Amino acid sequence: MTRDSETVEREALGFNKNLTYRLTRLQNKLNAQAAQILRNHDGPTLTDWRILRILNSLKQSTLAEIVSLTNMDKGQLSRRISALVEQGMIHAQPDVDDFRKQNLTISETGRAAHERVLPAMRARRNHLANEISEEEYATFLSVLDRINTAANNRDF
Amino acid sequence: MTRDSETVEREALGFNKNLTYRLTRLQNKLNAQAAQILRNHDGPTLTDWRILRILNSLKQSTLAEIVSLTNMDKGQLSRRISALVEQGMIHAQPDVDDFRKQNLTISETGRAAHERVLPAMRARRNHLANEISEEEYATFLSVLDRINTAANNRDF
DNA sequence: ATAATTTAGTTGACCTATCAACGGAAAATG
DNA sequence: CATTTTCCGTTGATAGGTCAACTAAATTAT
User: pLDDT value at position A156?
Assistant: First the structure.
């Protein structure tokens, strides 16, 4: 397969150049693949993986921060965090200065689960980024940034 | 807000430059906004909108083609198509040469629903694309393409 | 201080998405 | 031409995502 067979036939069509259409399409594929990898390695679900990954990087965070970092739904996040706490993957401690907050940290169990699948996930990431030059990637991220900003600066 | 408040504080972190992380994050926001617009205009759901949009462009298609165009799940698509047929938004006719296929076309009702929300969706699209030059957009799409190809050329 | 507003997180109800298993029809193989 | 294989689509079971309503704590305003 030299290139996407599915795009060849009808690629002249307008919607195929549409931004959100293309993003969604790629996103659907990437999510499915990531979920597959995690399943193959008896890892966490994709959502839980993302939470663990953030807590692994940040050392400590809160639900609200994860919401703003990911744009996930806070309801769902609340439920996933409860489950992860119950599984011993993360720890939750009430904040001393603000009793509404829960300070979240990754546990040793969580870190181990994270590190078990990390190589496969990293290999995948490298594979995906392989064909893209530094310069292109910078442009790409910059475009994402500006779309993101544009999305923020609008009331619907 | 001069730029994303949420990215300022911790943007030096590794995961913030990660491709799939950034895609997902943006995608989550864009989807939520698109869904909001559709709701505000008493339009179809986002998923149904995408189906209608494709059928509006293609004049005729099949479930399998929409799957390959969008990477949606065929099970869900099957159910949404049934619902849309029941609502009179699209027509489904068995293919004469291949009795497995159903040829799908948008109905007048469907087209009207599509056109009712189209201006708002188009305005949003223009707003999002506004700050991006032709050249950058070309690079952006090219990068998406190569990621997509890379995702295809790997077994997990 | 007290009231109004904002912020952090939880919960319920519902909808959507996903995977796997299946049926029948067409195509490919022998 | 019979049989395996592939392809198109449906269905069941279940997990995940979304919206809105809510409690409680903190902040801001009066």
Answer: 55
